[in-house]
């Protein structure tokens, strides 16, 4: 078992005040067999026109995929929306025993593979464990195929922030040959599903400092395993999971609607440390 502290601090700045703001967050650890929160807190607030800070009440629930969601509403005009999520989780090696719903075999608009990707999946082979940070468990055919895809995608893509958007599809990112962790994950989902391997999108916080991270979970003989194609590794410890779904559209960290035509500027700082 290992223990990790996490801190996620985010703000949205509005160019002009907005009001009637309804928001939904996914920013707290998801209860899973491999991770449990020893401590988890969330504070949400807005900055009003006069510069004062108004703390907001938070309602908690569960989405259709079993991930924790936090929701609320603020009527007052405000120019900044801020969240702070922090706590401590304990983890065992990344394994989730269970079953695989048929929807994780179905392509979505974001994960539909191109013909070029299908050919790429058929050709992916070689040293599946190359570059992994630790030795993988004994390889069956599913794990071997998934590791081969992970290495092939990592080699094909160049990590290039700003080259894609949240609406970029797997096929578009694959054709570009560059993107961010979300794109790597969408491409992996497309390849795995095209070979009949159930797979789902997962997101959360990675050890170190930065932004949110995305990876995939694939189903192998009764067990969901985590695979991070952006870093070419089979996950064991150090990824604090907050949500999963069919693709990134199922698990945004922050989604909201409000009255006002303001432009938005987002800031996000995440830190995860092993204790």
Concise summary:
With 275 residues, the chain is α+β, with helices and mostly antiparallel strands. The chain has helices spanning 115-123, 141-156, 170-176, 181-194; strands at 2-25, 35-48, 53-56, 59-62, 68-74, 78-91, 96-97, 158-159, 178-179, 199-206, 208-210, 213-220, 223-228, 233-234, 239-245, 254-259, 264-274. Strands 1, 2, 3, 4, 5, 6, 11, 16 and 17 form a nine-stranded antiparallel β-sheet that branches. Strands 7, 10, 12, 13, 14 and 15 form a six-stranded antiparallel β-sheet that branches.
Radius of gyration: 19 Å
Query: How much strand?
Result: over 45%
Q: In sequence order, what are the helices and strands, one letter per element?
A: EEEEEEEHHEHEHEEEEEEEE
Morphology call: globular
The span between the termini is 11 Å
| Helix coverage percent | 10-25%
The chain-level mean pLDDT equals 92
| Structural class category | alpha+beta
Indicate the low-confidence ranges by residue numbers.
Answer: none
Main pleated sheet:
9 strands, antiparallel
- The count of DSSP E runs of length 2 or more, i.e. the number of strands, is 17
The number of helices is 4
Protein model, in words:
It comes from Mailhella massiliensis. The protein is of the alpha+beta class and 275 residues long. Helices cover 17% and strands 45% of the residues. The protein has four helices and 17 strands. The strands form three sheets. Strands 1, 2, 3, 4, 5, 6, 11, 16 and 17 form a nine-stranded antiparallel beta sheet that branches. Strands 7, 10, 12, 13, 14 and 15 form a six-stranded antiparallel beta sheet that branches. A two-stranded parallel sheet has the order 8-9.
């Amino acid at each position: 078992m290992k223990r990790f502290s996490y801190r996620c601090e985010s703000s949205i700045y509005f160019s002009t005040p907005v009001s009637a703001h309804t928001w939904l967050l996914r920013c707290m650890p998801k209860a899973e067999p491999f991770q449990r929160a020893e401590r988890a807190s969330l504070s949400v607030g807005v900055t009003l026109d006069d510069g004062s800070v108004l703390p907001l009440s938070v309602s908690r629930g569960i989405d259709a995929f079993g991930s924790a969601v936090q929701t609320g509403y603020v009527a007052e005009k405000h120019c900044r929306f801020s969240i702070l999520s922090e706590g401590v989780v304990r983890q065992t090696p990344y394994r989730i025993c269970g079953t695989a719903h048929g929807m994780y075999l179905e392509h979505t608009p974001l994960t539909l593979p191109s013909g070029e990707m299908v050919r790429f999946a058929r050709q992916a082979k070689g040293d599946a464990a190359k570059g992994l940070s630790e030795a993988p468990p004994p390889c069956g055919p599913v794990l071997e195929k998934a590791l081969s895809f992970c290495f092939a995608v990592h080699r094909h893509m160049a990590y290039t922030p700003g080259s894609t958007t949240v609406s970029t599809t797997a096929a578009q990112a694959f054709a570009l040959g560059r993107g961010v962790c979300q794109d790597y994950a969408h491409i992996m989902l497309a390849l795995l599903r095209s070979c009949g391997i159930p797979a789902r999108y997962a997101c959360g916080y990675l050890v170190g400092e930065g932004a949110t991270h995305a990876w995939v979970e694939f189903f192998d003989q009764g067990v969901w395993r985590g695979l991070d194609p952006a870093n070419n590794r089979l996950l064991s410890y150090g990824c604090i999971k907050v949500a999963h779904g069919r693709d990134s559209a199922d698990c945004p960290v922050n989604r909201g609607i409000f009255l006002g035509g303001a432009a938005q500027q987002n800031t996000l700082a995440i830190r995860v440390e092993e204790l």
